[in-house]
Amino acid sequence: MNTRTETGFTPIDPDLYAKAFQLLDPAPEPAAPAAPAAPSPVSAILAAQPVHRPGPVERTLTDALAFLDTHGWAKHRLIHPDGARCSIGALRAAAGARNAAYRDAGKLLLDEARRQHGKQWKAIPAWNDAHTGPQVRSVWEAAIQRAHHSNI
Question: For residues 66, 68, 70 and 71, what is the CA-based torsion angle, rounded to 10 degrees?
């Protein structure tokens, strides 16, 4: 067998070849160790506002008011044929069940109704039916604020 291995290429220095490729595609420099971050001043930490996470009562009241805004408010019936609801109907829709958040939201709403409209109100439906939409909305908004500030 007669195999010819001569290619006619000029021999190169392998170290020179490696150096050329290193210049064309350099390896990333090893990262310098990061300097430790300067500690935050205590005043900056204390000035940062905490993120508010609404509690179940605030969430139920907020969702119920949003329901009223979307579907409408009704008097003298739990659910109007057009989909509007009274205050109790909106609370039930928002809570999904008669759970603790539903009961506590109802108690807070009735308490706020009594604060704004007198102690004679025994239940939310009677108060709801005796007042105008703006009066009812004012009670809802105040109850939401109280739940927010009480973090419940």
Answer: 150
Cα angle 10, 14, 18; round to 5? 120
* pTM of the shown model: 0.66
Residue 39 has pLDDT above 80, yes or no: no
- Rounded distance between C-alpha atoms, residue 45 and residue 72, angstroms: 44
β-strand partners of 85: 73, 79
Residues 127/106/59/73 CA torsion (nearest 10 deg): -30
Rg, C-alpha atoms of the chain: 36
pLDDT at residue 102, as a whole number: 95
Angle of helix 56-71 relative to helix 87-95, nearest 10 degrees, comes to 120
Q: Give the span between the Cα atoms of 89 and 68, in whole angstroms.
A: 9
- Paired tokens of 54: 């609404």
Residue carrying the six token digits 């989909």: 83
